[in-house]
Design a protein that fits this description.
193 residues; mainly alpha; Arc Repressor Mutant, subunit A; Tetracycline Repressor, domain 2; 2 domains
């Protein structure tokens, strides 16, 4: 069973590379077989078709993102620092996970029901994670009393809207500076005090 899982992971990693380089439509099972040094027919022992391989790649990348976010925020007691770290790690990790980003954000792949399900599940998980951070901030009297569910959903929508201009259009060097500026607006608002 270990060998089967090891081969399956090898196929997923090869497919990740190919999908990110050539996209889902242009990548073939033959390409994946060639990169893994396996016969095309042996791939079908592990996966029914290319769509199933793609699904496995997206699920794998989603787990990478979740793990990175959990590791980034564990051990941070200050809610403001935790929220900023969450946003920074999320945006930086999204830049590395091009297959996940492409599947979750672009409508042309949404005819695969698993992409819609994954998108909805990630949005719900993310809203819950942010809500926990906001609840901590309110409980510690670091944040104003607020509707943390509404605020968390708003932050999820804001982050999704900022992904393309922040992550894909800008340089990696400026990403953290831009996130800090956004956090300043979130924490201190636009009004002069």
């Amino acid at each position: 069973m270990e060998k089967k899982e090891s081969v399956r992971q090898e196929i997923i990693e090869a497919a990740r590379q190919l999908f990110s380089r050539y996209g889902f439509r242009k990548t073939t099972m033959e390409d994946i077989a060639r990169l893994t040094h396996k016969g095309k027919s042996s791939l079908y022992y592990y996966f029914k078709n290319k769509e199933e391989v793609f699904r496995a790649v997206i699920i794998h990348e989603a787990s990478i993102l979740r793990k990175a976010l959990k590791e980034a925020t564990t051990g941070i007691s200050d809610p403001a620092e935790k929220l900023e770290k969450y946003m920074r790690v999320r945006m930086n990790t999204m830049k590395e996970l091009i297959n996940y980003y492409e599947a979750v954000e672009h409508e042309h792949d949404s005819h695969y029901s698993f992409v819609d399900q994954l998108r909805d599940q990630f949005d719900q998980d993310e809203a819950q994670a942010i809500r926990r951070i906001l609840d901590e901030g309110v409980a510690q009297d670091k944040f104003q009393p607020l509707d943390t569910e509404l605020a968390a959903n708003t932050l999820v929508i804001a982050m999704k809207g900022l992904e393309y201009p922040l992550v894909w259009k800008g340089s990696a060097q400026n990403l953290n500076k831009r996130i800090q500026k956004i956090m300043k607006i979130l924490f201190y608002g636009l009004l002069k005090r």
